[in-house]
Amino acid sequence: GLHRLWKSEVIKELRPDGELSLLDVAGGTGDIANKFLNAGGGAATILDLNKEMLEAGKLKYPNSKAMWVHGNAEKLPFKAETFDLYTISFGIRNVTNIDKALEEAYRVLKPGGRFICLEFSNVSNDFIKKFYDFYSFKVIPFIGKKVAKSQDSYDYLVESIRKFPTAIKFKQMILDAGFAEVEYRKFSFGVVAMHIGYK
Fold first, then answer.
1. How far is it, in rounded angstroms, from Cα 101 to Cα 97?
2. Burial of 110 (0-12, 13-18, 19+ CB in 10 A)
3. Distance CA 23, CA 113 (A)
4. Which of 12, 57, 79, 116 has a 20 to 30 Å separation from 37 between CA atoms?
């Protein structure tokens, strides 16, 4: 359930306003976009590569005013300088070409627009890291096998987190894509980081 707290931090950072438009990439069932709209945001578009996730989102939020778009983070189906805000939560590590996705994020944002990425990160505290590693490699696969009946999916989850760049390296990738004033904040002992950049 911690993801709800982390997503709440994203909403705070977005500072929803009736004049602002949001693009939530890898938006899945639309949690971020709909929280943004419910908090007073102007307009929201949810983009995901998985059609089933989008359909599940429409059922989850039947009265949503968000737009639901099937598309790829590496080739966004929008004109340049369309959105004020771009978010991607726990999705960018699954993108084949992260640099291309970041370039696309920069392209579709208006000048002054903000990029916000919530993603798993590297734990620096040695004690917490030992516990986290045990949880990741022993508990999560067990849950996947016994509860979700899908150990492969949970093995992939752990592997993809480990392969993702450290927060410092990812910050540089965001800078290389053209963003300015890039910073990141870590939550839950570094398990998750929120990266922010401006166009």
1. 6
2. middle
3. 11
4. 79
